[in-house]
Structure formats: structure tokens, C-alpha cells
Specification:
Among the domains are: 86 residues, no CATH class; 203 residues, P-loop containing nucleotide triphosphate hydrolases (Rossmann fold, 3-Layer(aba) Sandwich), CATH 3.40.50; 98 residues, no CATH class. Helices cover 45% and strands 21% of the residues. The chain is built from 19 helices and 20 strands. A six-stranded mixed beta sheet has the order 5-6-7-3-8-9, sandwiched between helices. The protein has a six-stranded mixed beta sheet with strand order 14-17-18-12-19-20, sandwiched between helices. A three-stranded antiparallel beta sheet has the order 2-1-4, covered by helices on one side. Helix 2 packs parallel to helix 6. The longest helix is centred in the middle third of the chain and has 33 residues. It is globular and about 85 Å long.
Length: 619
């Protein structure tokens, strides 16, 4: 069944064409990611689909028989509602069903009560309030009576996400759903979406999230849409093949054009009797040969100032706000060339830590010593001080007319803007006309063009497209100074950071020597050991309780016997998948499915074993 059909869609703003004549289809069961460069109109496309914007040309068809939910980047709420009221009021179908049930009970009309009960059953609305609280808690919103007007931007985005999920739509459209989520929330959301049967269409820059959730990738490139059925690695491979084939075809067309141009340049009399199709074909070949592959990416090669031996030495710093302890007796000596990833949930003090070590905020106790040659470049999460009424080129010129790249290389402000994919005809546009991702890229320019040798990036990945992220990663890998990165993009942290500062809460900051994958494996193994200890303890308790046994009911006896067979089957399936994964001979698309099933099996085994232990106490 087709859920969404986009046909020959075009959209421009002034002289800027976002996309032109694009077409694609999303069918039931697809979990589809949309990838495109910043400024290509990803958010605009979603708004057109949801009728919040109008296309210049083309048609969008949404299936009228399905329920649809949309998570925008800028959700709008009634500020006077409490969190609970907002979620409940946004869940139209369920809220209506609950209201009709309550009215039917008051009326004592048996037919109306029966009808209302059937609706409640169909929508699974009996535990709706409990489900609201469960999802809000997962998204770290626990004050259900708080007014929406006093929520932070991140909390509002998470509240909008809760609304979207609780509506239980058939088709869900998400614009950057992982922004403002911490690692724990992102992991929960990707598992929720991966295991559900909801059809998904989303824009994301989070490549691990994309890999875990999506089975289809749509790329808008060169005013066309390309579809890839597979994970992110498959997309990269097939995209490279596509560009290579396109380059070869353009080169062939250029060679053929030379021959045809000679024929066309003859006197009209000499070719008057020639077939008209050959003349028409010449112009087609000419168009093909003049085609350019838009495979540009941001090229970042700004050399930092010389950095001496002493960087920043931190001695026993602490910082609290009232009873909230954010940093507790932290000491560290930063070293030239190290790349540190900061890892932790929202609200544990990551941004406060950055402000303390950059002397923007004084610690309550302890002190810092900074080397004389240290030049800090600080990309702040919420401090994009870009004036909307300024032209792009003036933002750059206000910092420097000429930018030093090191090794006696220089660029004018205009050249530097082109370097960051802002062409000449765009440099005189006002900042207000830029997309969110383009503004982030411009802000990144203003930080790097000052040639820092100690780079601090607080959530740099928000709103940047995947192409820009790839180049930023390569730049950081070759950066000669010291780098600190706060990011919830696990792929980005994994690729760039060599060591982690793990914010565990209550001011505790643990130094972990390794990247995100190493830390994740460490935590996973630690949790498995803890589960084993819990199981051992439960077995001991079961043995003690056997001295005073309780009898199984008939139903429990049947369940207990069935569990033994289930555990055996699940264990066998788990071994088969583990053998497959250990063999290393993966077929396209199977690796993700097998890995996902293995995770499900481990959860099922834990659940069934716990129940078996519980029943075994009565045997």
C-alpha cells in the first residue's frame, strides 16, 4: 500500500532552486531516511508534504485512509497547558475515546457503553495515562504539572516527540528527531522505532540512528532523487558507484560531442539531407556533456596557531548550583594533539564544564592554569551571534578581510566563503535567508577563521548535513591542536574522539581511554555481569524458598513446562546467529537484521529466565 507519493515537485525561493521535478514513493513498512546537503530544502519538502508550505509545481498525495503524525523542528504549543494536558489534548483519537467512554458511563446507556468499550479496546486506551507518563519519563520530562510556557527549547522538542509517538500513527514524519536528545534517549527512540510496525519518513544526520532504524535511503542530489534499499554503508558504496558511472558517461558524451560538433559546423547545404534526429541528438549530447557533477564538499584546511607545551592544567575544580552538583573535585592536564569526547545525559553539566575551562564561568573551588600560546576557538551550542540583517560576506569581513591558512597561504573573505560552499552569488544574501544548517556552517567558519589551536565544539553536529560532517571529521582527525567535543552523534564521537570524559551525574566525571564503541561495550559487559549476579542471588533465594514450597496452579504448570521448551529454542536460535556473525560472511541487508534479532533474543532470554526462576520457586 502506498502511503506517500510525490510527483514532479519543484520549489524555489527567489533565484535559489531548492529542488526541481523530484518524484518518489513511500510504501507501507518503509523506514526511510532523507539525505541532502544543507539548503537543499529537506525541511521545506516535509512542510510541503504536510501542507504547511506550497510547491511551485508538482503534486503530493497522502493516503487518506491512514493516520499521520509530524514532528517539526519548531513545534507550537499552547503555553497555558500543563505537560499532561498538552499530551492528552494532542492525542485526538484517544482523548475523544476516553471522553466518550466517561460520558457513556454517566448516561448508563448500555449500547453507548458497549460501543465506547469497543473503541477503548481498539485504541488500547485503558492505560493511556500510564503510557503518557512512561514515554515522558523516557524522554526525561517528569514534572507533568509544569506549564508548557516554562519548558526549555529541548524539553518542548521532546514533548512534541512524545505527542507524536502517543498518537500511534500508521505513518510518522520526523524532522531531526534526535536533536535535544541525549545518548540514553536516542537509544530508546531508535529501539522503539526499529521494533514498531510504524512506517517512517525522517530527516536525520545521526548515522548510527539512521542505520538502526531505516531500511531505505532517499538522496536529493542535482535536482534528482536517488533511492537506496539498504543501510548507510550500502548507501555510501552505491553512491560512489553512481558518481563514478556518471563521470564515465559524461566523458563519453564529451568525446562524442567533438565528432558531432565537426559535423554540425559544416555548411548547412552539406547536411541539409541529413536526418533531423541527428541534429536533435547533437543538442541532447551537448546538454549531457556539459553536465557537472555536484559532488562538492566543504574543504576545511585552516591551520591553527603554534601551541606550546603547556595547554590547560585543571586543579580540583568544583561547581554547583544550589543542591545541584555539576563538577566535583575534577583535575586534568590537557595534552597537545588529544581529541576528547564528552559523554553524558542532558543536565549533568557538560556545557557548564566547558564554560569553566574557558574562564567564562568561575569554579566554586579549584583553579586553572592556561598556557601562554593557547588560542581557544569555542563553537557554542546556543550562541550563534549572527545578525539576520547582515549579508553573509559582511559577517566574514567583520572578523577579517584576509584569512591566513598557514604556510604563507591566504584567502580573501570572498574566497574563504566559497571554500565553505557559499558561492559568489550567495555571499550577498542576508543571514535571515539561510537554512539552519547553512547558518551553523557560517558560524563554524567564524570560529575556525581565527586560527585556534584549542578547539571546543559544543554540539557541532546539530543541523549540519552528513556531507559537511564527513569533512569536519577529517579536519579534526588532522588537527594539530587539542580538541574537546560535546555531541550526541555517536558516529561522530566514535570517529573523532580517542578518549572520553564520562559525566555520570552528581558532579562525577570519569576519564575513559577509548571511543564511544569501546565505552558502550564496556558498559554492556558490566551490565551482563550485574545480571549474572542478580540471577545467582535469585537462584539462592529459590533454593531457600524450596524448603517452604508453594504449589503451582495448573495454568502455571503448563506455562513452566512451555518455558523450558521456549528457553531451549531461543538459546539454539541465539547460537545460530552468533555463529553467523562470527563467520564474517555477510550478505547485503542481513547483518543489520541478524544483529537486531540477536539483541531481541538476549532480551527475551532474560525475560523468560526470570519468569522460569519465579515459577521454579513453587516447584
Amino acid at each position: 500500500m502506498t502511503y506517500l507519493q510525490v510527483e514532479n515537485l519543484s520549489k524555489s525561493y527567489g533565484n535559489k532552486s531548492l529542488f526541481e521535478d523530484i518524484s518518489f514513493v513511500i510504501n507501507k513498512g518503509d523506514k526511510c531516511a532523507l539525505i541532502a546537503k544543507n539548503g537543499a530544502g529537506k525541511t521545506t519538502l516535509l512542510n510541503i508534504i504536510m501542507e504547511n508550505d506550497i510547491a511551485d509545481e508538482g503534486k503530493v498525495s497522502l493516503n487518506k485512509e491512514i493516520s499521520i503524525a509530524y514532528l517539526s523542528q519548531e513545534p507550537v504549543f499552547d503555553g497555558e497547558n500543563t505537560v499532561m494536558e498538552q499530551v492528552f489534548n494532542s492525542s485526538d483519537k484517544v482523548a475523544k475515546a476516553v471522553k466518550e467512554y466517561e460520558e457513556a458511563m454517566l448516561s448508563a446507556d448500555e449500547k453507548e457503553i458497549q460501543k465506547a468499550v469497543e473503541t477503548m479496546d481498539r485504541l488500547d486506551a485503558w492505560d493511556f495515562e500510564r503510557e503518557i507518563k512512561q514515554i515522558l519519563t523516557k524522554l526525561k520530562i517528569t514534572d507533568f504539572d509544569k506549564k508548557v510556557s516554562v519548558l526549555s527549547g529541548g524539553q518542548r522538542k521532546r514533548l512534541a516527540l512524545a505527542n507524536t509517538l502517543l498518537n500511534k500513527p500508521d505513518f510518522i514524519i520526523l524532522d531531526e528527531p534526535t536533536n535535544h536528545l541525549d545518548f540514553e534517549m536516542i537509544t530508546w527512540l531508535e529501539e522503539y522505532l526499529a521494533k514498531s510496525d510504524i512506517t517512517v519518513f525522517l530527516v536525520t544526520h545521526d548515522r548510527y540512528f539512521l542505520d538502526k532504524v531505516c531500511n531505505v535511503i532517499l538522496e536529493i542530489d542535482d535536482n534528482q532523487v536517488f533511492k537506496y534499499k539498504g543501510d548507510y554503508a550500502y548507501y555510501l558504496r552505491k553512491r560512489a558507484e553512481r558518481i563514478e558511472n556518471m563521470s564515465a558517461n559524461i566523458e563519453k558524451a564529451k568525446n562524442l560531442l567533438r565528432t558531432e560538433a565537426k559535423w554540425m559546423s559544416r555548411q548547412p547545404q552539406a547536411r541539409a539531407t541529413k536526418a533531423k534526429y541527428r541534429i536533435d541528438n547533437f543538442y541532447k549530447i551537448k546538454e549531457k556533456a556539459s553536465k557537472k557533477i555536484d559532488n562538492q564538499s566543504v574543504s576545511i584546511d585552516v591551520e591553527g596557531k603554534r601551541l606550546g607545551k603547556k595547554i590547560i592544567d585543571v586543579y580540583n575544580i568544583s561547581k554547583s548550583y544550589g543542591n545541584l552538583k555539576l563538577i566535583d573535585d575534577f583535575s586534568y592536564k590537557f595534552v597537545k594533539g588529544e581529541r576528547i569526547g564528552i559523554f553524558g545525559n542532558n543536565g549533568v553539566g557538560k556545557s557548564t564544564f566547558l564554560n569553566v575551562i574557558t574562564n567564562k564561568l568561575a569554579p566554586d573551588s579549584g583553579y586553572l592554569e592556561m598556557g601562554q600560546t593557547v588560542s581557544i576557538g569555542y563553537f557554542e551550542q546556543s550562541a550563534m551571534n549572527l545578525q539576520d540583517d547582515k549579508r553573509l560576506i559582511d559577517v566574514i569581513k567583520d572578523i577579517a578581510e584576509v584569512i591566513s591558512l598557514g604556510k604563507n597561504r591566504e584567502m580573501t573573505a570572498g574566497q574563504f566563503a566559497e571554500y565553505f560552499l557559499f558561492p559568489r552569488d550567495m555571499q550577498y544574501n542576508y543571514v535571515s535567508t539561510l537554512s539552519g544548517g547553512e547558518k551553523r556552517r557560517l558560524y563554524l567558519m567564524t570560529v575556525l577563521m581565527k586560527n585556534p589551536n584549542f578547539l571546543i565544539l559544543d554540539e557541532p553536529t546539530n543541523d549540519l548535513d552528513i556531507m559537511t560532517l564527513n569533512v569536519l571529521e577529517e579536519y579534526l582527525l588532522g588537527f594539530g591542536g587539542t580538541v574537546i567535543i560535546v555531541s550526541h552523534d555517536r558516529y561522530f564521537i566514535d570517529k573523532v574522539a580517542e578518549t572520553l570524559f564520562v559525566f555520570e551525574g552528581n558532579g562525577k566525571i570519569k576519564h575513559f581511554p577509548g571511543n564511544y564503541s569501546a565505552y558502550s561495550q564496556f558498559i554492556s559487559e558490566k551490565e551482563k555481569e550485574q545480571k549474572k549476579e542478580v540471577k545467582k542471588s535469585q537462584v539462592k533465594e529459590a533454593k531457600v524458598k524450596k524448603e517452604n514450597p508453594q504449589k503451582l496452579s495448573y495454568k502455571e504448570k503448563v506455562e513452566f513446562e512451555g518455558l523450558e521448551k521456549e528457553l531451549e529454542d531461543l538459546a539454539n536460535e541465539k547460537k545460530i546467529i552468533e555463529d553467523y556473525l562470527n563467520a564474517g560472511n555477510f550478505e547485503d541487508g542481513l547483518l543489520e537484521k541478524k544483529s537486531k534479532r540477536l539483541s531481541e533474543l538476549e532480551d527475551l532470554l532474560d525475560e523468560k529466565e526470570m519468569r522460569w526462576l519465579e515459577l521454579s520457586e513453587k516447584v
